[in-house]
Write the structure tokens for this entry.
Amino acid sequence: MENKYSPQIAKEILNKFNVKGWNFYNTNDFGMNAHERIRKNLSDSLKLNGKYVLLPIANNPRDPIQVMNALEILARKLNREMPTIRVNNSNYPLTGLTLQENFVELHTPEGDHVSYPDLIEAIDSVVKTN
């Protein structure tokens, strides 16, 4: 498996998260509020240097009310604990990620970096939202 960004590995990441019930929303446009981002920035591909937030899949993924309701259902399911991803025996909050050339940056306070193969394997540890 490739250890750096490629459109193929980005597609695999997107597909694996979608199967788990997660959508990616591009957050590169800092001027948008959450509702605008949901309406306008649903990502059907993941780009190099793209910054993305992960939200649960809703029937209409561009409807902020439906997406927020799906997030509330997930929060109840997890007893209001943050969803996590387990990479190499360490748990990280699952909020979003940025695809860099040679690694993936997890949106954690520390900005943790993981390899592409480790991320692909770790997606199996992510809670299924649907």
Summary: The beta strands are 22-26, 51-56, 84-87, 90-93, 96-99, 104-106, 113-114. The radius of gyration is 14 Å. The first strand starts at residue 22 and ends at 26.
